[in-house]
Each structure stands twice: as structure tokens, then as C-alpha cells.
Amino acid sequence: MNTPENLLYTQSDEWLKKEDDGTVTLGITDYAQHELGEIVYVELPEVGSTVAVGDSFGVVESVKAVGDLHTPVGGEVIAVNDAAPDSPAIVNESPYENGWLVKIKPDAEPDTSALLDAAAYTSYRG
Questions:
Q1: Pairwise CA distance, residues 104 & 24, whole Å
Q2: How far apart are CA 38 and CA 121, in angstroms?
Q3: What is residue 109's three-state secondary structure?
Q4: What is the DSSP letter of 107?
Q5: How does pLDDT run along the chain (126 residues), one tens digit per residue?
Q6: Hey, where are the domains in the chain?
Q7: What is the pTM of this model?
Q8: Fold of 8-105
């Protein structure tokens, strides 16, 4: 299982990266894409939409299952990865780089106290 040290993780298998400009990038973990199997459909929100902590921000569908994506931060969606809905396999191939899903401008400093670091996530999913 690939679990980059520079990210934070949710127990529902999303990852979060705090960017230098204060925004956050979200995606699903390597563990999640592996468990889902071949991803065949990705639905993402519209740029400009707002989300609250815990809201669903999209859907990932695989040959095995359908899963809602949940955000650990609230704010405005400022970018979506247009490649993901067009080529869903990108999430399987590169969940942390090319397969990112959304970028959010938080409406407040994100509370990351409930998120896991790489070691804790690896232990949780171990």
C-alpha cells in the first residue's frame, strides 16, 4: 500500500494535501482504489460549489462498488480534475498525483485533528 508521508488521511479513505496557498487537494487513497478495483465512473462537483465538512463531494464507481466521496474540510470547490470523469482509470493508475479529484479553498482553517498521518493510516488499514 502506497501511503505518502506528506498527506493526511480520513478513515473513509480520502487523502488531503494542504497546499502552500492555503487550499487543499483531495483524492482517494491507494488502498481505496485497490479495494474498489477498476474504476469506471467518477462524478465530481461543479467549480464554485460549496461543501461542508462531511459532505459528499462526488461519487466513484467501480466494477465492484459505488462509493460516495466525503470532504474533511468545508469551503468552495475551486478546481476539479477534469481528466478523472473522462478517464476514470487515472484514479487507479495515479491516485496521489494525476488522479487527484478536487481542490477546495477552505472557509476556515481546516481542523485536521480527526485526520490520520501516514503511519496511523497504514496501521488503521494494515
A1: 5
A2: 22
A3: coil
A4: S
A5: 899 999 999 999 999 999 999 999 999 999 999 999 999 999 999 999 999 999 999 999 999 999 999 999 999 999 999 999 999 999 999 999 999 999 999 999 888 999 999 999 999 998
A6: 8-105
A7: 0.94
A8: OB fold (Dihydrolipoamide Acetyltransferase, E2P) (2.40.50)
